[in-house]
Amino acid sequence: MRRPMVAGNWKMHGTRASVAELIKGLSDQALPSGVDVAVFPPSLFITQVIEGLEGKSIATGAQNSAVEPQQGALTGEVAPSQLVDAGCELVLIGHSERRQILGEQDSTLILKFAAAQACGLKPVFCVGETLEEREAGKTLEVVGRQLDSIIGQLGIKAFADAIIAYEPVWAIGTGLTATPQQAQDVHKAIREQLAAQDAEVAQNTRLLYGGSVKAANAAELFGMPDIDGGLIGGASLNADEFGAICRAAGN
Ligand code: 13P
């Protein structure tokens, strides 16, 4: 059985004061024991979050990590080994905002994925199509290609210790959520793509949905057979809302 997971991507939000408030709000939540909960603060706040959530069963991840596993001369980047040293367990790789705004290419993401795993950091690999691609009927082709870029270079076993997040670009921060069936269709295709190479990896890999998830629509999305939880943006900045989404994953 795959354990459900709810992860909050805080993106480029927060100040020391607002992060302290969010930590307090999260600490007060009754979180379901059967759900893995994680937050991804800006790297500046990772230490504050890890210290503030000590003793709570909430994992911390980074939103990005370097192409090289170990520390060295790479200005502005944070090495996966440094994130592990700080207490991080997870890292987002290939979020569409980084692909689109910063121009991160598949070739870079492969290096980041491998570097993270080399240090024991679990990648949450993000895939998803734009509205234009969906309207052109290319959703599965685009998502399939994004996944294949990793499988082709690192092998299917790379996903034995990783998580996949399907985030349709048109649903991110727009209030437009994929319907549960639209999301399920893509998740099913992703699982079939994994299964074509390794049935066990396909069975065990968690597939999260992201894109305007909130407490009001979470249960319906998480009720679909191939949706194992969510990657939450805006709604994760509100501790009560995020707590409610976590509880929806536990039901
Ligand atoms: P929203 O939940 O704000 O749509 O963001 C989703 C997302 O990009 C999470 O990584």
Automatic annotation (TrEMBL):
Coiled coil: none annotated. It comes from the Bacteria. Pathway: Carbohydrate metabolism; erythritol degradation; Carbohydrate degradation; glycolysis; D-glyceraldehyde 3-phosphate from glycerone phosphate: step 1/1; Carbohydrate biosynthesis; gluconeogenesis. SUPFAM superfamilies: Triosephosphate isomerase (TIM) (SSF51351). It is an enzyme of class 5 (isomerase). Homodimer. This is Triosephosphate isomerase.
